[in-house]
Every structure is written in C-alpha cells, then in structure tokens.
Amino acid sequence: MSGYGVPGAVSPGEQAANRIQVPTKLKLELNCNGLRNRDTLSVSDPFVVVYLSDTLTKKLQERAGGDTKLARSLSNKPILEGYKEIGRTEVQKNTLNPSFAQQVEIEYFFEELQTLRFAVFDQDRDTDVLHVQDALGQVLVTVGELVSSSPVWTSALYDNEKDQAAKESGVAEAMQKLNVQKGTPSIKHLTQQSHAKGTLSVRVHEQTETMLAVSLEAAGIELDKKDLFGKSDPYFVLKVAHHTGQHQSVLYQSEFIRNTLNPIWKPMQIRVPEKMLHEPLELSVWDYDELSRPDFIGSVTTTFAKLGAQPAPTLGLINSKKASKKKKYVDSGKFIVRSCLVDDVPTFLQYIRAGLKLNFSIGIDFTASNGSPDSPESLHYMGDPSRPNQYVQALTAVGSVLQDYDSDRAFPALGFGAKLLDGTISFNFCLNGQMNPICIGIDGVLHAYYQALR
C-alpha cells in the first residue's frame, strides 16, 4: 500500500511547479535586400529596431491608462501603442543590402500571441533618437510565424501597418472567393509579391539548452526500522543544490510505501537541463509518519550520470548521526537502481523545423443548450459589440496562436445543431454556407461564424 501527502514535504502538484522550466530563447539574425536610398549624395546607412507586443506590454499600457509617458516595460523602455523596444542592430554604412551582425534576443512562448515589429531606418544623425532618422519601411509578424518558417522568413517592407493589413486582407479575400482547397499557396507567400520598398529576412536561432528525460525505477533493501509497532513507511526525495550552495530544490518526491523495509517505488519520470547531468544530487530516504514529521533514514550524494551508469548502481544510504554513535556502522540500507534511462528531449521548435505541421479545424455547437443568440445568457449572444461572446473569445485566443503553425491557414470550419435557411436541422454543415468548409485565417472563421448566426 502506498500514498502521498508526506508532512514537511511537497505534494505531487508542488513537485510539478518546482521542476525546472527553461524558457525558449531565440536569437534573430536579420538582413535586408533592395532598400530604398534616402540619401542624395551617398547610399543609406540602415539599421533595424525590433519591437515586441505581448500580453505583458498590453497590460502595462492599460494600467497606465494608455499614457505612453507612464507605460514602461521592465527594462524601463517606453511602451508605445502596445509595443516595447527589445533590440537594435548595428548601423551598416553605405549599403542597400545589409546583413547585420548584431542579433536580437527574445523569449518565445508557444501559448501566447507575440507580435514583432521590425522597423528599418537610415541613420542621418549619430543619435539613438529615432524621429530624426529616415524611415525605410517596417513589417509586422508573429513569433509563431517566424519559427514555423524554416529556414528563413522573408517579407516585403511597408510604409505602415495599414498598408500591410490591406495587402494581407486583399489576398485573404481573393483566396476565400476562390473557395481554396487545403494545400494551395499560403497567404504568407502571396503577400510577398511587391518588394518596392525592399525586403527583410529573418533567420531564427534557438538558444535553449537541451533538456534530458530521466526515467528511474528504484527500490530499497534492508532500510532502517523507524516505527515502534511496525517497520517503516519509506519514500525518497531527489534534490539538487543551487550554485549558491544555500538552497536546494526538490526535483522529485516518491510516494511512500507502508510497513516495509524493502520498498519498490513507482517509476519516476522528470525532465532536467543537460547541464545537470553531472551536478551533485542529494538522494535521501525518509520514513513517513502520519502524525509527526518524517524520520530521516539515510542519504547519498550522486549524479544523474551515475544513476544511469551500467551496471545499475547500488547506493549505500548514510545517516551521519547514527554513524557517529556506532563504530561498526555500515549504512542504513541500500538504494537500488533497477533501471535508469537518460535521453535527450527534442524541443518543440526542433519538431517544427523537422517538418511537424499543425492542422487547425473548428467545430461549433449551435444546439439549443447554448441558448438563443438574442439572449444575454447565451454563449452565442451578439447584442453587445463591446464584449465578444465566449465562442469569439475562444476562437480568437486559440486560433490566433495556432494559425501560424498551419502552413496555408486554410481552416475547415463546421457547425452542428442549427436550423438552416431551408428549415432543416443539420448536425454537419459548412460554417461559411458553401460546399467547401475552408475559411482563410482566424478572421475568415470569425466572419463565417457571424454570418451563420445571422
């Protein structure tokens, strides 16, 4: 019999929270081609400024009431129109086709919509102030679109966001009118036909350290007896010391096994950074007590590399207090590694770069359980334009992230449980009212959804 809930130790949920999470760091390598020349007697001296808009920047600006003088990022950079500056390249002298050595670093979160603005300038004055420099063009792109465009993302430059939005909107409408099939050229490629202002190319380099998957099956043999009217209820804990040596993090805590000195614990699986392979670990075994703090049985210092060695090791558990009192003390039992596998864990971006494609399909429930769209209680309620209903919120939140990983952004969108115009009840109809359920982008899906409600 076994269980969790050891006093003085962490729960399985807390263990998951304490496991080491390594952010995905990216470095962006930039180059431009065919830039406009804004200098009369020479050639432009271009550089690129990179801005980021994400959940945090938007919240900070909202708290400041939209005041750009008050809205500041954590790096004390001003937040303008929801964007903060995160980096600049060096200035390349006298060229319209610069390849920049200075890379820009960002942190990537798959589950969040992160938008980058690349603004290209011609340096006219030796100052960091941008309004005195000549603007050569800009382009917006999500981080998701960057990382899913392998190996290089390239786009035309635009004068402003409206020009880019108009271009992309026009292509999307044209594709929708053609009733496109999956596999047709994507919007990304079709919007790159006009390069009058030059192009920007971005190559993404992942900087995140390799993670390791550790799978351990372990047992104990002849552990010390700690209970007066029984044996012991042993469990083990894995900790790693931080570089300061002042604090230890719990990597894993097993379940306790009741009334035994020879426990066999459930298999353990955790993920750790590769740099921890040879770092010291403290492996300790304890006796669970329901009404008091756990009793220490013994511990040993090891590493993940040693745990995964062949033949599988047997480790003596040492209780230093007990050892100091007994001359013939050997150990307080053995920790037996029955098997231990340490494997590399590919990152999400490595899967994407290797060819993984995500397809996004939508099904919307129009059955009576959702309520009438005219009722404020309905999930489909459309009476308040300032407050999107729950379906719109869900489609926008999920679709705006996933659409960057669908190569053509052609989404099958279906509905069920609705009365059609001819009076029939359908449990499988195309949301756009056509024979082909494909909608272009999340905006196309939302347009079809609004039309279906009307």
Automatic annotation (TrEMBL):
Matching entries from CDD domains are given as: C2A_Copine, C2B_Copine
Q: Which residues form the C2 domain?
A: 6-158, 181-317
* Listed GO biological process terms: cellular response to calcium ion
A family per Pfam: C2
Listed InterPro entries: C2_dom (IPR000008), C2_domain_sf (IPR035892), C2B_Copine (IPR037768), Copine (IPR045052), Copine_C (IPR010734)
Fetch the Gene3D superfamilies from UniProt: C2 domain
| Cellular component per GO, a single term | plasma membrane
**Example GO molecular function term?**
calcium-dependent phospholipid binding
Q: Which domain of life is it from?
A: Eukaryota
**Per its record, how is this protein called by name?**
C2 domain-containing protein
